[in-house]
Amino acid sequence: MLNLERLRILCAVARHGSVRGAAEGLHVTTSAVSQQMAKLERETGQQLLARNGRGIRLTDAGRLLAEHARRILSQLELAEAELEAHRGQAVGELVLGAFPTAARGLFPAALAALRADHPRLRVRMRELEPEDSVRTLVRGDIDLAVVLDWYNRPLSLPGGLAKAPLLDDLADVAMPADHPRAGAEWVELADFADDEWISWPGGEFCHDWLLFTLRGQGIEPKLCHTAGEHSTQLALVGAGLGVAVAPRLGRGPLPRGIAVAPVRHPMKRHVYAVWREDADRRPSIRAAVRALRGAAEGITEDRWPVREEGIRPLAGR
Comparing C-alpha atoms, which of 275, 145, 131 is closest to residue 206? Predict the structure, then answer.
């Protein structure tokens, strides 16, 4: 009988195109992937991987089995979802992923609501950047992810995922309190063409978005510092070391020495939940989305102005 975990690893090799990529995606060593593939070859009695220069490729048998494995794993998840739906209760374990400001701004209220409403459901949260969340979701390590699009830069989503909007997150420009534009009712990005910018770490989705957006305004960014946490970015702004984009979700009180202003043409992040379509009928998925939407609706207008259309009902769920 074929081993399901080895089939899952074969799918990862097929998806990433390499043993190294599969190992990184699965958070295991390359030797562990190689050992499991060797065992799978012995189980099937066929060669599944072949050397291709410095890398590897799937043989015809490997591609055939990988396609069957993908369908088998999808059917297994569908069976689990149907069983949970048959029980009609949100029970078992649910693993959620969230980017940092969503983890801080939405998840405390959402997780508390899930615990109160569904005491038999064990929920765990992992803080992940949006692109990492999507990869982790696709390979089955988490059940639902909260991710974001910027208004002018969508996040690429693979097929097989369902999604539901949660809210629109407005973003301001944060600047030192003595900046010439401090106290302005609104600003233009061009106002900061000569300023140094504090950004997210290189390679992250939001870092790439900032470069894309500034260059789209004809501004060649002058990046002076990078930090993953918005609180760290704002501390650097407060010390007079540059300006930064400051989303409102999970922002909290501003440190001293900082002024913020909205951009004339608003900068928004579209925040939404995504999950695998095969798990669509799971009551726990639906419960998590309801809890997240409830947390989003709990963000009041006086704390955080959000356009009404930014919080839409989850139709048909």
Answer: 131
On the question of pLDDT at 120 being above 60, the answer is: yes
User: What is the overall mean pLDDT for the chain?
Assistant: 86
**pLDDT tier at 76, thresholds 50, 70, 90:** confident
